[in-house]
Write a structure and sequence with these properties.
52% helix, binds 1,3-dihydroxyacetonephosphate, binds zinc ion, 8 strands, binds NADPH dihydro-nicotinamide-adenine-dinucleotide phosphate, globular, Dehydroquinate synthase-like, alpha domain, alpha/beta
Length: 352
């Protein structure tokens, strides 16, 4: 959805966003009866079905829709194909992704395949994919970034989110904090490669990270107000990506580092946790205030070292060097990094 200048031609945004306490009952309102939906496919996962999936189903059935459910146990293209095939057979006219990133991204891609809209009902504020048009689907030790559509609506129940393991919330915060370096990388690419840069997308992304960091002290486990702050930031970051027509406002070298770690082992740490540590390193390489990034992550309770991520010194250095293999067309401060420079950066920043 970009034109020949690489500019965003279409800005595809969520239509309704509801964030608050006990808002799952508002899912039918978000579907807006006047849109005429009759058949909803709820895509959820084993734990989150009990947390929210069944309740959402009950509310949607009470509103008069016929509902079918798919439970996704493992992310991947197999789950997408199975969900798409159920959606076709059932003739779903809307999909509801209820859970963490796995069911939401599965619903997002399947909805696109069948040409139906989807609603995101996150049970974890774990990354900005819960509000964006982009999905990340694992395939072996690779992750495919798939462009789909923005959700028709987002219904984020702060009571549910506050009950989720805090590690997921802290990871969502780290994903937002990493926007600082994503934007720096984007501006660098504009200067060095004349890459298309959206000032609106960049400014919104940067402001989102700033507001989150200003509120870092108030983000605490079990504190419902915190999840409200985090979800707003995740929505705002998703909107920045929609404005830009790409993930550039929220994904630079620190995200390449996370993707490279996933290729080593995608199960040791969470996406946002990896991006946060990557952001400390890339901010150092930009000559910026990397200590503020590290301190904000520490205040929130997100990892700041390789050890906390579960990776060795050699693995994080390898990942930094291997960022060259990830989306080579996206220029960042890591482009061309040598092994010596990577070793120096992780040592200087205390990542190892
Ligand atoms: N689109 C994008 O930009 C991005 C997408 N992703 C994708 O998202 C996925 C990861 O998403 P993420 O949210 O981190 O992880 P998951 O969806 O795997 O959720 C993590 C775990 O938390 C559980 N859980 C979720 N909510 C609750 C809750 N309220 N209470 C108790 N347990 C809960 C899940 O249970 P259960 O067992 O039910 O699943 C799961 O075990 C990956 O597939 C990744 O590729 C990652 C980053 C960016
Ligand atoms: O995670 C994202 C933004 O936070 C999306 O990034 P990618 O496009 O690198 O998958
Ligand atoms: Zn991210």
């Amino acid at each position: 959805m970009t034109d020949r200048f690489g500019k965003s031609k279409w800005i595809n945004l969520p239509r309704n966003v509801v964030v608050g306490h006990d808002v799952l009952e508002e899912v039918p309102d978000v579907l807006e009866t006047r849109l005429g939906f009759e058949r909803a496919l709820v895509v959820t996962s084993p734990t989150t079905r009990n947390v929210a999936g069944d309740e959402v189903t009950a509310h949607v059935e009470d509103a008069g829709l016929v509902v079918e459910t798919v439970v996704v146990e493992k992310a991947g293209f197999e789950a997408v194909e199975r969900t798409t095939s159920v959606a076709r057979e059932f003739e779903a006219d809307v999909l509801l992704g209820v859970g963490g990133g796995v069911p939401i991204d599965t619903a997002k891609v399947s909805a696109d395949e069948v040409g139906a809209p989807y609603v995101s009902v996150p049970t974890a504020a774990s990354h900005d994919g819960i509000t964006s048009s982009r999905a990340s689907i694992p395939d072996g030790n690779r992750r495919h970034s798939v462009e789909a559509s923005a959700p028709l609506g987002v219904v984020a129940d702060t009571a549910v989110l506050a009950d989720a393991p805090f590690r997921l919330t802290a990871s969502g915060c780290a994903d937002i904090i990493s926007n600082y370096t994503a934007v720096l990388d984007w501006r660098l690419a504009r200067r060095l490669q004349n890459a298309y840069y959206s000032r609106y997308g960049g400014a919104l992304s940067e402001m989102t990270a700033e507001i989150l960091v200003e509120n870092a002290d108030s983000i605490r486990p079990g504190f419902e107000e915190s999840t409200w702050v985090v979800v707003k930031a995740l929505v705002s970051s998703g909107v920045a990506m929609s404005i830009a027509g790409s993930s550039r406002p929220a994904s630079g070298g620190e995200h390449k580092f996370s993707h490279a770690l996933d290729r080593i082992d995608g199960d040791r740490a969470l996406h946002g946790e990896q991006c946060g540590v990557g952001s400390v390193v890339t901010m150092y390489l930009h000559g910026g205030d990397w200590r503020s990034i590290r301190d904000a992550l520490e205040t929130i309770g997100a990892p700041t070292t390789a050890d906390e991520l579960g990776f060795s010194r050699d693995e994080v250095v390898d990942a930094l060097v291997r960022t060259e293999e990830i989306r080579p067309e996206r220029y960042t401060v890591l482009t061309g990094i040598t092994r010596d420079a990577a070793e120096n950066a992780v040592e200087e920043t205390g990542v190892v």
